[in-house]
TrEMBL record:
Part of the ABC transporter complex XacGHIJK involved in the uptake of xylose and arabinose. Responsible for energy coupling to the transport system. PANTHER family: MALTODEXTRIN IMPORT ATP-BINDING PROTEIN MSMX (PTHR43875), TREHALOSE IMPORT ATP-BINDING PROTEIN SUGC (PTHR43875:SF15). It comes from Halorubrum persicum. InterPro entries: AAA+_ATPase, ABC_transporter-like_ATP-bd, ABC_transporter-like_CS, ABC_transpr_MalK-like, ABC_transpr_MalK/UgpC-like, Mo/tungstate-bd_C_term_dom, NA-bd_OB-fold, P-loop_NTPase. It catalyses: L-arabinose(out) + ATP + H2O = L-arabinose(in) + ADP + phosphate + H(+); D-xylose(out) + ATP + H2O = D-xylose(in) + ADP + phosphate + H(+). GO terms for cellular component: ATP-binding cassette (ABC) transporter complex, substrate-binding subunit-containing. Its EC number is 7.5.2.13. The lineage of its organism: Archaea, Methanobacteriati, Methanobacteriota, Stenosarchaea group, Halobacteria. GO terms for biological process: carbohydrate transport. Residues 264-274 have a biased composition (Polar residues). Belongs to the ABC transporter superfamily. Carbohydrate uptake transporter-1 (CUT1) (TC 3.A.1.1) family. This is ABC-type D-xylose/L-arabinose transporter. The complex is composed of two ATP-binding proteins (XacJ and XacK), two transmembrane proteins (XacH and XacI) and a solute-binding protein (XacG).
Amino acid sequence: MTTVTLQNLHKEFGDVVAVNGIDLEINHGEFLVIVGPSGCGKSTTLRLLAGLESTTDGRIEMGGRDVTTVEPKDRNVAMVFQNYALYPHMTGRRNITFGMKSSGDFTDEEIDRRVTEAADTLDIADLLDRKPDAMSGGERQRVALGRAIVRDPDAFLMDEPLSNLDAKLRIQMRAELARLHSTLETTTVYVTHDQTEAMTLGERVVVMNDGQIMQVDEPQVLYDFPENRFVAEFIGDPAMNMIPVDVKDGRAIHETFDIPLPSGNGQPKSNQNGAGDAQITDGQRAILGIRPEDLHLSDPQTNDELPTIDAEVNVREPLGDSLLLHCSIGNTSCNIQAEPRMPITAGETVSVTYDPARLHLFDAETGEAFYHSELRQSTDEQAPSKLTT
Ligand SMILES: Nc1ncnc2c1ncn2[C@@H]1O[C@H](COP(=O)(O)OP(=O)(O)O)[C@@H](O)[C@H]1O
Ligand SMILES: [Mg+2]
């Protein structure tokens, strides 16, 4: 069992605090993605796991063993980098077997067997005799994966392995990585700045910012129940709209609209929907979050009971499968993802409705989530996302 545990992990480079107190438990066989903006400490966290950086404070356990000060070679993890890190003067085969041969732990037969197996799994048999400059980016990354696989490590640590590939190849390799994981079932920690990659690959996703964990959850839970404004705006594209409102008598009141916050009577209560510990008081200023895809142009044909919101269209962007409208609601900028082919022009004022099950409220100061209008099912069954020890 290779459960990986990070406890109160800190890493400082001089004055720079790269990792600022991370507590995380990675399950055996899990595909865990760490996502966050550039510079938030993702690579440093991964390098600490690999033993390529020493911790300033905190503890790392793998399979119950304290490895905090253990040398990288003795951790039995395999790292895959963005730039592939292949030796240019060696063939694919030599690149794959280099670490195994030099370790002296494997017989030649064992090495051959493992290379054949990995080449099979990754479909790279025809690359084994080529040098990296005769391979495409995708092929190089496959060879780099091969090098990681043959070592049969306890965990794969992958740092933006697809970032150097073009968009089409990235999507293809993404699917291959998912397939590879379901075949090998090796514990994998995968770092990316790309939220789509995180959502599609991760069994659980860790959202990081400023060296800290913002939330750990399954992808759909992150999208449906962001615990704070940072996660709400980072996950989802285009980003969630953030509209300043006053909350009074269970309604969100903006300069141009006044809508009910569904949850029975009165003001929304904290916690009942899986939001944070923040408590909203009547008359308080808050941020109403609504995703562009949860706003719709109101249809005069249907007798909608919902109140409508007036939005002035500033820019229209036809995306083919949808029409993205950049709008102003009073003084607030707001994006709406409308049906494609709607005859709407810039300068027009449109009437907008929303999905009442998809409203979010955040503390205007701390950004913490007060409330989600959808009830989160059986929070008890959620795996504990952050260690409480
Ligand atoms: N070797 C280093 N020396 C000094 N600062 C570093 C070093 N490595 C990373 N940092 C700093 O630590 C912070 C986190 O970096 P990093 O973990 O690479 O972020 P990410 O991978 O999320 O983009 C950044 O401010 C970066 O400049
Ligand atoms: Mg990085």
